Amino acid sequence: MEVLCKWHVIVKYILGHESEEKFFPVMTCAFWLNVVLQSLFFIIYIEPNNVSFYSELPKILIIICFFSSIGLLYFAVNNNRRYQVAEKWFTSLNATYAIQIKIIVGVVMLLSFFTLMVWAIYLM
Question: What pTM was computed for the model?
Answer without folding.
Answer: 0.86
